[in-house]
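Q: Could you write out the predicted structure for this multi-component system? I'm mainly interested in how the pieces pack against one another.
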Amino acid sequence: MLQTLNRPALEQETLRVSALHALVYCPRLFYLEEVEELYTQDAAVFAGRRLHAELAKANDEDWDELTLESPELGLRGKVDALRTRDGQIIPYEHKRGRCYRGNNRQPQAWESDRIQILAYALLIEAVLGVPVSEGRIRYHADNVLVHVPLNAEGRQAVHNAIHQARQLRQSPQRPPVTDNERLCVRCSLAPVCLPEESRLAHNPDYPALRLFPRDDDREVLHILEAGTYVGKTGEQLKISRQNQPDEKFPARQIGQIVLHSFSQISTQAMHFCADQQIGLHFISGGGRYIGSFDTRQGSIQRRIQQYKALSNPEVCLNLAKKLVACRGQSQRKYLMRGQRGMAEIPPPLTAAIDQMQRLLKQVDLAPTIDSLLGLEGNLAACYFGALSHLLGEDTPPELRFTGRNRRPPHDRFNTLLGFGYALLLKDVINAILVVGLEPALGFYHQPRTQAPPLALDLMEIFRVPLVDMPIVASINRQQWDVDADFEVHKTHIWLSDSGKRKFIELYEKRKQETWKHPATNYSLTYRRILELEVRLLEKEWSGEAGLFGQLVLR
Amino acid sequence: MSEHKNWYLICYDIREPKRWRKAYKLLKGYGDTLQYSIIRCRLTMRDREKLRWELEKILEPEDSLLIVGLCNSCLERICLCNRPEAWSIQDTGFRIL
């Protein structure tokens, strides 16, 4: 069993006053930011910063920005402005929004703002040694100035908050989602915290609102031509191809760069990708996934929770069962879907569907991972055995599918599968890295070279909808040219340049299609669902289980 | 809170070369230049506010900056009234080079 150390160093570390603000807003927000070290900034955060930049310019002369720290109090922070009024030192805080209105429309400070300004006042007293009688908050949206007196009750409130913050920092347990749903709608961390999904996990009838963005519409850049050079100029990525003029792309429009075969990328560009959170992936010229640039974002805390959960054999077995059932059902449903519109249903297809039904019933009873592996193997054998019946009558013999083979693939169908799974693996790893989990620690697959087990695990959910289905559909639409799109070698078959282009287009277009998630009941694009699924997996061991692995084809 | 995107036209007049270069570099990271000192960007609220904040750190009071948000019907009219190359849109979500 994994041992985790208590971290005494944290006890000494002072709290940021703004963390106290987060704590009063929502303890879970505080925990995610301070303990799990997740920061996302939304529009309001940047608008607030701009307000401060503008104010600093407008009050050039008497603008004091003070960074203060008091170990005795346990706080540190940057005071917006200190003014002297009638011989009294008064800290000011500027807020972009509106103030809170009490019963008789009386302007008041929001509780989190109140604690924040009081904490600044206490900090000034402790560090500068001058008494402070009040703090003031200006709300710019409705142009209101609120006075917050520093009295005994206020002092106590700040001390209580500091105490609570310290306790939370020591706690391994993520606090529950707040009861006040309105807080979540305005929270910048909602896409990471997934409050609606957590409520759904506890109450299956909860009508989940979608706080998770529907799509990540940054572009994926596939670089196929060997010898291409990827560099950076200013805030742009520069792609230089042989015998072509340079192309520049604004960095904020790029979400991933995929280097197929041997292209160059400068170290500067790599640093820039890390900074801009652009995923960087490598795929070999033969269509094998090589690896990704892992910048180890996301805190260790998340990984520790993952290590703890996934070193428990029981947890692993349960998750693995869900996974095998999920993939097996999708495979079976896909075969059933293929029967539609067939004049005459081939008996082997019906037989495979029935056999899979029987196998799926055993999944839940499997006593060990090994027995699951056996079941999965049988399911896969049934599925791949019957898959060829979904191909149309007029499919050229070269594209016919007789059985799965790989490393290297011997026929065209397997070449397509292999390349598709490499692209999928790349996207799954991208999602795992974005969420900040450890790709190498999975619950079902055993470690082998290159492909990290957790990525292989998660991939199972998406094999059918993202790879198998588009391949069969494209063959039935007769999109493939059996000569020009493939390179036939003695021992293996690879996709040619034109074949790769065709496939990437097929795959990326598929990823942009939307799917209504069966558990959360809202639709997202597949590329977004990939990330959502990793986040839902992470919830499995954070006390909000039950939503992972539900993505089954209808 | 879905990440809705809108097109913006950003125009500026910056009085000093050093600041101009900084702002120009920054803006090129968000969008494409249409003409000198006219840039178009497709931004979420989040990106727009981030850009405004980053610009505010560079610009001085003497500089001017104009950010024009465009709605969908504005966009259609741009394409109607101008030369065809004035506003080309490629939005596939991926590129193969």
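A: Regarding packing and overall arrangement: The interface with chain A takes residues 1-3, 5, 25-26, 28-32, 41-42, 44-50, 52-53, 56-57, 60-61, 92-97 of chain B (CB under 8 Å).
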